[in-house]
Amino acid sequence: MDGRSAMTVPIEPELSRSELADRQDERLVETVANAYENVPFYRDRLDEHGVSPDDIDGIDDIGTLPVTTKTAFREEYPDGLFAVDDGEINRIHASSGTTGKPKIVGYTDGDLERWAAVVARSLAAAGVEPGDTVQNAYGYGLFTGGLGLHDGTERLGATVVPMGGGDTARQLTMAQDLGSDALACTPSYCLYLADCAEERGLDPRELPFETVVIGAEPFTDPMREEIEAALDVTAIDIYGLSEIVGPGVAIECAEAQDGLHVWEDQFYPEIVDPDTGETLPPGETGELVLTTLTKEAQPILRYRTGDITRLYEDECDCGRVERRMGNVTGRTDDLLIVRGVNVYASQIEAVMVGIDDVAPHYRIDLRREDSLDTMEITVEPHERSATTPAELRATIEERLGEELDVSPDGIDVVEPGTIERTEVGKVKRVFDHR
Ligand SMILES: [Zn+2]
Fold first, then answer.
1. How far, in Å, is the centroid of ligand 1 from the Cα of 30?
2. Residue at a domain's end among 282, 309, 328
3. Rounded to the nearest whole angstrom, what is the distance from the C-alpha of residue 174 to the centroid of ligand 1?
4. CA 125 / ligand 1 centre spacing (Å)
5. Distance 256 CA to ligand 1 centre (A)
6. Strand, coil or helix: 267
């Protein structure tokens, strides 16, 4: 791996598809060797599977490698997955585990440089230009969102305003005073910010943002349209996860806004059946599996992300050769089974956000009563809505039944502003009390 740290990563690699494929082959071979030689966890796993690094000649052999699940991070906590000595680790991040220990991730100097480059590349694809001002409202700290966007913005040659999450009054003032061209935050925070602007007598559409780079939470096309209308912006979906690197694994291009280009010279995507783990044919929807191709500190082989999406096989209008993945529409751990019907929370969101009279604020409460699962939905009517709560309930019931074949046990329509907003961190919409 010597020498790679010194390699400068071009922001856009400008490779042909076949050059990209050659690079993936080489890098997978190096990554497997690094994992086998330096991470006892992987040596054991590969030995158990009867796979030697010598068997891996390139991407065609990737399916023979064992998958990695989030359990590995738990079992090897804190640094059992590191492939380098502590002295070579330049930074630690951690993902907020909902239960138990967080997943620790380490980066060498070279890893940080490559991460900044993919975020810079992502921002450029989103339409952000050198010299622009990017207001970064992702949380700083162990969460990868804040520092990831921060370093990438600087690497692009744009100006970063390191706001971090929350402090919305100040976000608005800074945006106006600095003329921020772009805002990076979660989709739910975009809407929160727009609401706060209105409360202060500001027209959110008059804020200087032209682009919002949104990620870290699943969202749907209707919600994106809501954000674009509320702030008069182009909303670009960025994807990433700490276990692989952080934000910047994939992003939509501003030209097409149709699927997220996966930076395949750094991360190799596959789609598998979430139940069986079998690789699915091209174009089918399933669970995204990612392999790092250049990570030195913590190579990760075939990580089961839990994110449900698909890979597009057609070429993009923008001319980039990297394949695209669809917006993440759900997570395997987001799957609700309500009275035997499988449904993703985000599918319920898609239905509700698609109803004009419903505000994009809702919560789903799951309970178990007498061994039966129940689902209750609480929604706010849109402020401009003139329908009665009874009419709204009937509309929601009809649409959920038609589109998802689910019927909630209760639909509570509450006054606008009642449902708690998330100012800092990821929004929580599903409350499982079972
Ligand atoms: Zn494109």
1. 29
2. 328
3. 31
4. 8
5. 5
6. strand
Cα of 273 from ligand 1 centre, angstroms? 26
Q: Are 343 and 357 in contact (CB under 8 A)?
A: no
- Ligand 1 centre to CA of 252 (Å) is 7
Using one digit for the tens of pLDDT, what is the confidence trace for 361-395? 888 898 888 777 788 999 988 887 888 999 999 99
User: Structural domain tally of the chain?
Assistant: 2
293 pLDDT higher than 80: yes
Cα of 185 from ligand 1 centre, angstroms: 22
The last residue of one of the domains, among 328, 352, 386, is 328
* Domain identity same for 295 and 355: no
pLDDT at 361: 81
CA-closest candidate to residue 26, choices 239, 293, 267, 257 = 293
DSSP labels, 161-219:
E---S--HHHHHHHHHHHT-SEEEE-HHHHHHHHHHHHHTT--GGGSS-SEEEE-SS--
Same domain, residue pair 174 and 239: yes
10 confidence band (pLDDT: 50, 70, 90):
low
Same domain, 295 and 337: no
Give me ligand 1 centre to Cα 322, in Å: 8
Parent domain of 379: 333-432
CATH of residue 135: 3.40.50.12780
Q: In angstroms, what is the span from residue 188 Cα to ligand 1's centroid? A: 25
213 shares a domain with 271? yes
Q: What's the mean pLDDT in 396-417?
A: 90
Q: Which amino acid is at 81?
A: L
pLDDT digits (tens, 9 = 90+) for 324-354: 999 887 777 777 877 777 787 777 877 887 8
d(CA 267, CA 273): 19
